Description:
The first copy, chain A, is an alpha+beta fold.
Amino acid sequence: MIGGYAGKILRIDLSRSKILFENLDYQLARRFIGGEGYAAAIMFGEVGPDTGPFDPENRLIFMTGPLTGSTVPCGNKLTVVSRSPLTGIWGEALFSASMGVDLKRAGFDGIVIQGRSESPVYVSINDAKVQINNAERLWGKDIFATFDAIREKSDNGTTMVCIGPAGEKLVKIACIVSDEGRVAGRTGMGAVAGSKNLKAIAVRGTGKIGVADESRLKKIREDAIKTALPNTKAFRDNGTAAGVLAFEKTGNLPLKNWTRGTFPEAAKIDGATMTQTILVKRKACFACPIACGRHVKVAGSPYAMEGPGPEYETMAALGSLCMNSNLESIAKANDICNRLGIDTLSAGGAIAFAMECHEHGLIADSAGVDLEWGNPDAIVKMVELIGKREGLGATLGEGVLSAAHIIGGGSERFAIHAKGLSFPMHNPRKFKSMGVAYATSNRGACHNRGSPFMNERGMLSPELPWNRSYDGLSTEEKGRMTKVYQDVCCAMDSVGVCKFFVFWGRVPLKFLSDSYSAVTGWDMSFDELLRAGERIWLTQRSFNVRMGATQEDDTLPKRFLEESVDEGPVRGQIVELEQMLGEYYRERGLDAVGKPRKEKLFELGLDSVASVLY
Amino acid sequence: MIGGYAGKILRIDLSRSKILFENLDYQLARRFIGGEGYAAAIMFGEVGPDTGPFDPENRLIFMTGPLTGSTVPCGNKLTVVSRSPLTGIWGEALFSASMGVDLKRAGFDGIVIQGRSESPVYVSINDAKVQINNAERLWGKDIFATFDAIREKSDNGTTMVCIGPAGEKLVKIACIVSDEGRVAGRTGMGAVAGSKNLKAIAVRGTGKIGVADESRLKKIREDAIKTALPNTKAFRDNGTAAGVLAFEKTGNLPLKNWTRGTFPEAAKIDGATMTQTILVKRKACFACPIACGRHVKVAGSPYAMEGPGPEYETMAALGSLCMNSNLESIAKANDICNRLGIDTLSAGGAIAFAMECHEHGLIADSAGVDLEWGNPDAIVKMVELIGKREGLGATLGEGVLSAAHIIGGGSERFAIHAKGLSFPMHNPRKFKSMGVAYATSNRGACHNRGSPFMNERGMLSPELPWNRSYDGLSTEEKGRMTKVYQDVCCAMDSVGVCKFFVFWGRVPLKFLSDSYSAVTGWDMSFDELLRAGERIWLTQRSFNVRMGATQEDDTLPKRFLEESVDEGPVRGQIVELEQMLGEYYRERGLDAVGKPRKEKLFELGLDSVASVLY
């Protein structure tokens, strides 16, 4: 038996209200694994440069991995893929939505959505019964109200994802949210759903997800959990934001739109403080032994709220990046982002950008919002305006790069992004490898599509070619390291296991190929899996090349290439990108203009990709 | 000698601050004439689907025709061409800017701008001396203030074009304005300039524009003026808005976003009323004997202004389309559009759309503006918000199609557009041929890129294959007629002569080829010129095909295909598009998906276009 895979792809054409069941291509599945890998093969074949992100013919793909729902620890990932309206290139966001597990139980590995409905709809899947339903009455509703309304009409146990008002209004940083409050945040996937008039997907699946070798899987599961649990205790205790204070001490925490080196108030927004003040309970995703999720409550303040609490990236983006140390305001702003459906990272990046523009007198009208650094009210108000596409928020919701073009006045120098995606919350001046990772990630600046700083943090993997850790401040090996870690991440995202569990849990990477082998019954070595990761990465890169991306786009803001901060642990550090990038290009098999070399494509069996590029 | 052509193209790369003089390709010029024709050949060769409208590598082309500045009557046209950010396809706008004449006198047929400057610049051309100048101090200034500031630093006799704050902020309906107040309005050319950080172009030319056969030209000029003057007297007297009242009587005037059939208050916004109330003086473009231009002044009202007055399209768009009969408010709103730099047609279309959304309860927050039909204050306030990209204006400035996607709630049915460009102010229910013209125009809904209603209005041309006028309400011959008139318009725009003079002046069309022959010394028959028009049209169409346009885009809003008005002269009339379109496709040589047939391309010598499409 082939375990892990459901064996069917659901294809929905919203223009023609057509629903098709297609067979999963198992040969493709072995080569592209699943998740973002399988989706990359579909995207490269079906979406060319003449299909704009908001064109009906753009695809919006929801794809599980073969380990999603398999009971492998943290095998819970669902990937959303499309051509991004924010960046114009490869768009992708990953989340631990239970809907992915239910989709598999209903018999589908993924959903490919194309076309545009004439009026708002939501898709419901109840095992093999698939329907396109009127969603006029849901349009305009916030995320959680939408779930409540659909839940009322659905069988017990239905799981869901949806967009909020921001996605409906095509805000370019709009996200897709699951009913547990997990978020597919980056690259504007919510806006693509909005452009298709697709409000939500609700799934109830009651079938079984096959596993080829249950007893082998049981052993793998037990070993992995035993290794990971002690290493992730801090995250269970205090959430992913557990690292805020430590990151400030080491120079990793982003401050004042990346212009400062110390933040004496960091402790106020550290995960431990959250535990002591507003935490109500911990929350775990499907099959997760860690439970880094937070449920928080703020009462009796202007920031009253109850719901999912901020994780590290959010805490930094809406906090230290904007010099805001008011924890309750961050919880409130996070809640508004969740309800309206916008990416907290991009929102924080945009607000920090706006605050710096304000400091330089470039924002004439901020609709009564005082954009002083650190003003918690400004952050809460601005996320609302972004989500509602109103006032200055309409500009910021275009993303920092477009917003800079709109605001002008040289504000592009405050737009901290790669390929149009604003930075995540790890400092490439502290971990130089992350400079290469941000500059070359296929979806724009990303710390999760290549996490070479795991080596710089001293977390070694016996499967990888380094038996020592390299200093974060040195450039040695960083080009090669980035290439390899990108391949690892492509593989890990495609099988559908949480990176957090594996990396921070210090689980040997062979866990991935062993689990894959046990679940599918196909014997796959770690090397073959890594090779698949390389194949996936290059397919995504080739997608971007077709969209016009070149080596000129593999860069970082001047703020990192030429400027530094004058205090703290990374004082004076810049990112020596050029020298690392040369090594990276060689290792990766890219030519001088950044195009994958023909020989490299042939070597990986990507002949059809080569025939399009050459 | 080759008269008419200057013989050089100026190419400016703003990314690299490079200025190049290229030779005009005379062989290309003979086949593509000049203006939008020559620009189409450049665009097809240099801008593919992987170059987005705001990408630095998009081209912004300013191109004159061979008759521009030649002293042929109304030989004064300058065309602006780019990939449109409003529609994603062929973008183009034509105006009678004296800067075009000066450009020729300076020795250039056109300017091709590429790249993006890091900070705001303006280009100055003083005969052969071409400079890229810092424009930091001009950025943010309104249109007329910009001209004043540049004029102060320039030699006497310098003519200019520039963008306003709207173009700087990438408002998608931003225009480019000349220092006489003439406007290249449609398809967002101002936003492309803004995306390149290009504020203005200032030109002083002192050379002579060659004419091969002066005495032949003199005779042609005298005959044409003698014919045209009596036929255009109404426009000299009362401007192009002279037709408002008559159009209301015949059913041509757009009313209440195309949902009404009569407007008792039409006389209040008729050109004759303008003459009697706010007209200060008449204004003529270069070499024009008509002087349809208006200079108006409103004193002592909330709408106080002085400057260029509204022409017909503006009067209808900001007037009857929104049920606004307050002439002074239209003059004021027009003035704001001119100063901030937005297209009055698109602005009026967007405001009418917003008013209809408001009527249906779809606009929650209009920032205190009462969007009741006909409210003059709302129109004045909304054009300001659009131009400044603020509040609801930020949404409307995206154009009606995107605005409908943002506002949602089924509002797409109120978005009256073709290919994303909102309708001009002539009713296709009254002139059925215009339905075909709007649906198939290469730049989206346009009455000037194909004006078959000239036949329906009883204005026959002996050079064209119809010796009688066809009823506007019938569909007979309308497919073929649209095809032929599109070719005529391509030819007329490319030589650089004003359509208004030729069509409404009832000047025989042979005037175009005769003038071209006299000026260039190349003997060109009207048939060869028409053939060039067909070649130009198909090159533009092929450009759009590359961008992903198909037969599905050759359509009209349901409001015209299925709905009508229940009163007035066109009561019950719809546009029977499908039957006319079949005939059109056959005549035009398009296949079932709307792609130019290979044989047709070969027939016109467009082998290189065919090799890209096939």
